Every structure is written in C-alpha cells, then in structure tokens.
Amino acid sequence: MTTLAPRRSIRARRARSAVMVGLTVLAAILATLPLIFILALLIKQGASSLNWAFFTEMPKPVGETGGGMANAMVGTMMLILVASAIGLPIGIGAGLYLAEHRNGRVAWVVRFLSDVLNGLPSIVVGIFAWQFLVRPVKQFSALAGGIALAVMMVPLVTRATEEMIKLVPDSLREAALALGFPRWRTSLTVVLRTALPGIVTGALVAVARIAGETAPLLFTAFGNQFWSTSLTQPISALPLQIFSYAISPYEEWHALAWAGSLVLLALVLVISLIARYVTRSRFGHGHD
Amino acid sequence: MASTPLHGASVGDRIYRVATTAFALSIPLLLLLLAIEVAAAAWPALRAFHLAFLTTAEWNVVDGVFGAAPAIYGTLVSSALALLIATPLAIGVAIFLSEFAPPWLRQPVAFLVDLLAAIPSVVYGLWGVFVLVPFLREHVMPFLADRLHLGNTPLFSGPAYGPSMLAAGLILAIMVLPYISSVTREVLMAVPRSQREAALALGATRWEMIWGAVLPYASSGVLGGVILGLGRALGETMAVTMVIGNRPEISASLFAPGYTMASQIANEFSEATNDMHLSALMAVGAVLLLITLVVNMLARWLVWRVQRQGRS
C-alpha cells in the first residue's frame, strides 16, 4: 500500500485525483458515443426505407425497386419458436437441477460447462450443427438453424433460472413441503411459480440474443429468397438477409439492409425492455 | 393434496429428479458431442498437414494445400487490438459507475453501455461497411500516415484501402467493451466497503483509494473480465468478416486487410466443394474452439475467485 502515502503535497494529490475522476467520466462518454451514433444512423437510414411493403412483400430481384422482407421476418419468428421450444425446457430443467443441488459436484461441473458453452463462438456452433444435422441428410433446414440457436439459448436460460430460484426464500419451500406437497409439486408449482418473472426475463434475454445471430444460420437455415414455412427446407431470417444485402453492390439492397437492421434492432430492444420491465415489476429494482 | 397417496408422491419425485438430472447432464453431453463432431470432421486435414497446418501461410484450394497461420494471426492481432482499445475505456466506465456516478446517472449509463452488447453483430457489420470503413479510409488513415508521419513505420504502412485489421480491431473494441465493463463493475461492487473506508481513513484521495485499495483487491476479477472480452473477440464473426478485407496474408501493417478464423469459416464454408477444403475449415473451427475453451475457462476461474473472496 505504498501508493497510499506518497510524498507529495495534498494539493497535487487532490489535483491528480480530480484528473483521474475526469478521465473516468470521459471514458463513460466515449463508451456511449458509438451507441448513440449507430442508433441515430439506423433511424435516419432505416426509416426512409421503411414502409408497408417492407413488412408485407417478398424480396424483389435486382433492378426492381421496392420489395420487402416479409419472408425473412416470418423465418426469424419460426427460428425463434423452434429454438425456444427446444432450448427453454432444457434450460429451465437444468436450472432447477443446479438450484436444488447447489453444492453438489455434478452441479459444479454442469454450471462451469454451461458457462463454457455460453462462451463458445457462434460460428463453431454453426459448423457443429452443419456436421451433425445438415451433412447427414444433405439438406439445409429451418430445423437445423433452430437447433443451433437452441444450443446458444440453453446456457443463458439455465443460469438465469438457477439465479432466480436461488432468490426464492427457503421458508416458502419448507411451508409447501410441510403442507404435504411432494417435492416435485413444491418445485414446479411453488418455487418455479414464484421465480417465474425472473425466468421469463432470462428467457426473453436469451431470445433477444439469438434473434440477431447470423453466423450459426449461415450453414444451417442457409437463407431462402422465396416464401417458406417448412421446417425441413432452407429458411430466410432477418440477420441473413441483412448480411447478403449489405455485401451486395446494389443501392436498393443497401437501403433494405438498413431498414432490416432498424426492424431487427427494434425487435431486440423491445424484447430486452420487456425483460427489464418484467423483473422490475416483480422484484423491485433490487439488484442490478 | 393431502389425499395424494405417499407412494404416488415418491414416484412423482423420482420422475422429477430423473428429468431435471437428464436436462442438467445434457449440457456436458452436448459439449462433448460438439467437440467430438468438430474434431472428427477436422481429422483428415490435421492428419494430412500435422503441425504445419498451424504454422504455414499458404491456403490454396486448387492445390489442396492448407495452412491456417494467417487466420490465426489475424484472430490474435485483431483481438489484441480490440482489448488494447476497449480495456482502459471499460475499466474507466466501470470505476465511474461504481464509485463516482451520482445515483440518478448510474442506471441510465449502465443501461446504455449494456445496450452495446444487444446490437446484433450483423448490424455492427453494416455500420462498419458504410460508416466506419469509409471514415477510416478518408480521415483516420491519411491522418495517421501523413499528418503524424507514421506512414513509414511498419504498423501504419501501405495503401489505405479501408477494410483492414484496424477496422476489425476498432469494431471489436466497441463490441467487447460492454462485457469487460459489466464484469468489472460487478467485481468492483463485490469489494467490501471496509476496504474503501480504511483507505479514506488513512487520508487517501478518492483516486488513491481506488488505485491503492479497490483495484488491487479486484484485480484478478478485472483480469477475468478482460479475458472474457478476449473470448468474445476471438469468436466474433459477422462484423469482422464485413470489415477486415478477408485476405489470407500476414502483414504487420494495421492498414492491410487480413483474415480471422471465424471469418474464414463464414466466407468459405458454404462454397467448399472438395472434402479436404471442408476438413481444413473444420480444423480451423477446431483450433478456434480449443483457444476459446482455454480462454473462457481461465476467465471464469478468475472471476469466481474474486466473487468467492468477496463473500467470505
């Protein structure tokens, strides 16, 4: 702790302190600038291309103006549904296990590995899903894309569920058991129900996260210029469409990419805000 | 409920226990399956090229010669550049939020910084292609090379195309900043109040308190946050692919286009027609998987250590 007793005048030390405090303020300003720039630009560029046709029409071929991303929006919704249908039960079940076996060795390993899974690059999840689900059947599909996204959801939902169940007071669990509830009913109807708002938040955060994912879809859902709602066929998604339009050389497509980004970001932000609102209304603004 | 027969309850409990255990165990199994699948698909390339796969720079689909060195180099350099830029900023933000910010400002600023993590990678890429890259090409690169006369140094030499290692590093810095900052904030909050009060009681200024008493206490957690950010940067795909230029060459200049492992997979995978090309890309994925596994485990371990310390 030698730094605590420098042989400098108190004025110099106070000045130095003030400068450093100022630098942290500057860091906060610099860190929020990119967000403001990006949001402002998205609204400016995206809003001018947003119209009714964008939401209702199919992509048009090069050279024709107009057209929309209706198929990509439906595709994104379908991928989210498939991923949630698979990822949520697994995540919530694993979270229940972790919360109930807090100090167990298996729980420790599962907790650690779920954090590891959460840190895996999404492109690696993509090539895994391709190798496992696309290659054997020689067919890109919405199902493969949804499963790849589910793999990314599981660790997020697991950890969120665990954290939220830990907040449920033990007295509540004990009261239910004392009333003669079997364990499973205590867990599912008392504990899980009490923690539900928090788990919904966790699920929404996970959905917001996967809604914008592109890399795992490149070789699974693959994208589709046509209308498709089949689980066994390639399907389009907003992020995929934005990517292919952004790297295309056509002005009209760039405009659509901005509009698509605005819609995608709005979707992600609305989901995130709902998630925040759900927790806040239930738990107050306790820990953040 | 009281009428539920006891043996019925125990059957229910057993089913419940088996089900939650199965869900929990599916996570390790999934990871194992993932590792095996990727490793098996990478095997032909790894067997054909051995260690040369990691160290040679030639990536020639026609001749069937594959070396991943440029992609590995690009991944490491772009990530290092990102950390170099993002770490001081992120720690500054975290200190500001946990120590100095008035309560009314704390939540909104934390929310804005966290929002950076919510923007999809492909949207960053779009912004990178149409705003960041032209800005670098027309303003920043000429400024660095001509005004500051750095054009002759190896780091800033060569023509200013725009798509470059510099663009990738910058966009990655913005993307990993919220991760580093939120972990650092958490770790700083876990530092006991007594630690701060003791420093102030000894006559420390506010900065001396942070530098002398708070940061040393939190240091391994902060390091964990930085390494967690590194994990994110290494695997980031879309935004980097859109701004880095995608050229499998090794150049010391930050102005030169490059490649990363994730970008190489994203770019070439769906066009790979012959088996060795596919296997080589899988091998790139396997290397990326291995690197991020190690990095993430290290980060988690460091963060956990501080949080345990704070609690006891």
Strand content of chain A: under 5%
Using the CA coordinates, give the radius of gyration of chain B: 24 Å
The H-and-E topology of chain B, N to C, reads as HHEEHHHHHHHHH
Largest interface: A-B, 98 and 101 residues
Distance, first to last CA of chain A: 31 Å
- The helical percent of chain A reads over 70%
How much helical structure, as a percent, in the residues of chain B?
over 70%
The rounded Rg of chain A comes to: 24 Å
Low-confidence stretches of chain B: none
Beta-strand content of chain B: under 5%
Which structural class best describes the helix and strand composition of chain A? mainly alpha
Run of helices and strands of chain A: HHHHHHHHHH
Tell me the overall shape of chain A.
Answer: globular
Q: Structural class of chain B, please?
A: mainly alpha
Mean pLDDT of chain B: 92
Oligomerization:
heterodimer
Shape of chain B: globular
Distance between the termini of chain B: 41 Å
Mean pLDDT of chain A: 90
Instruction: Please give the order of strands in the largest beta sheet of chain B.
Output: 1-2
List segments of chain A where confidence is low: pLDDT < 50 over at least 5 consecutive residues.
Answer: 284-288
At a glance:
The complex is a heterodimer of chains A (288) and B (312). Chain A has 288 residues and is mainly alpha-helical.
Secondary structure: elements and pairs:
The complex is a heterodimer of chains A (288) and B (312).
Chain A lengths: L9 H38 L4 H5 L13 H31 L4 H15 L2 H13 L7 H25 L3 H9 L4 H29 L26 H9 L4 H33 L5
Helix pairs in contact in A: 1-10, 3-6, 3-8, 3-9, 4-6, 5-6, 6-8, 7-8, 8-10, 9-10
Chain B lengths: L5 H44 L2 H4 L3 E2 L4 E2 L2 H32 L2 H14 L4 H27 L17 H25 L3 H9 L4 H30 L2 H6 L17 H8 L6 H37 L1
Antiparallel strand pairs in B: 1-2
